[in-house]
Each structure stands twice: as structure tokens, then as C-alpha cells.
Write a structure and sequence with these properties.
Blueprint lengths: L9 H30 L3 H27 L2 E6 L2 E6 L5 H8 L5
Length: 103
């Protein structure tokens, strides 16, 4: 969909950008480990899930702070939506977030 008058839809674009990023960066990092923690039956595995849940909460809080404190925008680039986020680099948070991608 192409808009001919970009300024007319600026408010809608900002709303949908922040809504998606809130869901993707604040809700998901906590919701995914919470749901697996609630489903887990084994005590030892449940403790591991509790650690991942704590990491998810820390990441969610940090990304919520960044979302409220730094500018974000979205644009169409090659049939995809590209999100420009000018967050400061915090290597500890990035390391915690990368734990999700370990097998």
C-alpha cells in the first residue's frame, strides 16, 4: 500500500510503529519465558525457566525505557518494514538478550 500524502498518515504510522515495537520488545521477552515456565512440570527445568524469565523481565524493562526515551521510526525498504531505533548500546543487555538464541 502506498500513501500519496505521507503527512496525513504520520500519526497513524507513529501509533502502529510504537504498538508493534511495544509488543515485540516489551511483551514478548517476558511472555515467552513466562509461558514456558508455567507449562514446565520438572523442578530442575522449572528453575532454568525461572532464570530465563528473570532475564526476560530485565530485557523488557530496559527496552521499555529505550522505547520511551529514544526516537524510533519505520520505513518501507525493499518490501519490508525497517525499524530505525537509536538506542544506546548496552552490552550487558545485549548479552542477556542473546541467551534466548542459544539452543
Amino acid at each position: 500500500m502506498a500513501f500519496t500524502d505521507q503527512s496525513k498518515y504520520a500519526g497513524l504510522q507513529a501509533f502502529t510503529t510504537y504498538t508493534f515495537l511495544f509488543f515485540a520488545q516489551v511483551i514478548w521477552p517476558t511472555l515467552v519465558p513466562l509461558s514456558t515456565w508455567l507449562l514446565e512440570k520438572k523442578s530442575q527445568q522449572k528453575q532454568i525457566q525461572k532464570i530465563l524469565l528473570a532475564i526476560g523481565i530485565i530485557v523488557s524493562l530496559y527496552l521499555a525505557y529505550c522505547l520511551l526515551s529514544y526516537p524510533v521510526s519505520a520505513s518501507i525498504e525493499g518490501y519490508h518494514i525497517a525499524y530505525q531505533q537509536n538506542y544506546r548500546q548496552h552490552y550487558i543487555i545485549m548479552a542477556l538478550y542473546s541467551i534466548y538464541w542459544l539452543p
